[in-house]
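#onboarding

Welcome to the new folks! Below is a worked example of what a typical request in this channel looks like: someone posts a single protein sequence, and someone else replies with the predicted structure as tokens. Don't worry about understanding the tokens yet, we'll cover that in week two.

Example request:
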Amino acid sequence: MSEKMHVDKEKVLDWLEFKFDRRIGTYINKNTNLPLTLFYDDEKDELCLLDQNKLPYEVSVWRTDDWKKGAAIGIGSMVTRGSQAIGVTGAYCVLLAAAKSKKSTKKRTVEQILAAAEKIKSARPTAVNLSWAVDRMCDAARNALKRAGDVYERLKQEADDIFVEDIFISRALAENGSRLIASGDVILTHCNAGSLATTYGGSALGAVEYAVSQGKDVKVISKETRPRSQGFKLTLWELMTAGVPVAGITDNMVASSFEKFGINRVLVGADRITKDGCVANKVGTNDIARMVAFYSVPFVVAASYSTLDMQHTGKEIPIEQRSYEEISMPYHYEALEKKKQGLIGPDALSFWPPPDRISDEMGKGKIVLYNPAFDVTDSRLISNIVLDLGIYRPERICTIDEKTISERISAIVARYSKAL
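Example response:
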């Protein structure tokens, strides 16, 4: 966002009709009933995240004034998740680092910020938005060192600009995506690429929610998305709250659901889009893409421009390996419940597989639990990629340059700023 295009974030929230709910401790949208995914408490210098580890059972806010906790717990432990939300959270984590360094010299403050930034970026390596937002904050810190004025205040403005921009580009993305949605569509989605994955407004689901708000009759089929079940817990909760008709299916019901519900479109998000038009998204996305090729229905990806990685190809994307406990923990709870009910004896196993039998390599008497967080979908399987910048064929992603991005994002910010 240009230096001359700073926008008051409170005006943006008023424009979108948000009200602060003191009971929950966050802003709630009047029209969708959806909460703001994250915000920064200026008075307390605290990062406030909607705790998505507690959804759908409880709507509450997790707060911290510590950048290390913001990175390790807020991002790494998935209190917040989704590519855009992770990016904005990372920007505010840098701001927390600056807040802790206020008493240092200007040069020392910037040095501490840059050191913290490297650790923040490592919290979740696959989502390119995180490094994009943190690098932008680092550039602002370096520029602040060369100019008069307070480093913290300069970074505060930059983080708020990223926050506002994310809301604006989510709106533009939703409007672009809704152009591909017709009344009567039955859309299959995977994981959660909705408002919860952004500051507010969503990517893939944002397009659906916007289409519904415009009077289109749309239904959504949400895939469970094991092992963390974001599709079952987050997407079902979000669409139910927003009033969008939705059905939940488990991960092994995709093919039968095409016949049961008449699915005619697939719409998913992305954590990284490479220069060759390949897409990294929650593991299982590639499975769907290969399956829907059989049914000859459009496979559409929707994401913000900040997910673009013009330096790498799909084969070069680092894939994050998550903890095996994400897979095994439900069976632990099942064992405990069976013991409680007397269905198995008190000396029966409490964990499956037994932790001492879990190994990194397959071998006699050992079990490997493979748990990649993402997979990569080949560009040949993708019909369209919807960005806030516009709608692209995968092979045209390589034509997007920094000048195009700068001009179009500036135009988006200017267009929505006029509505405030």
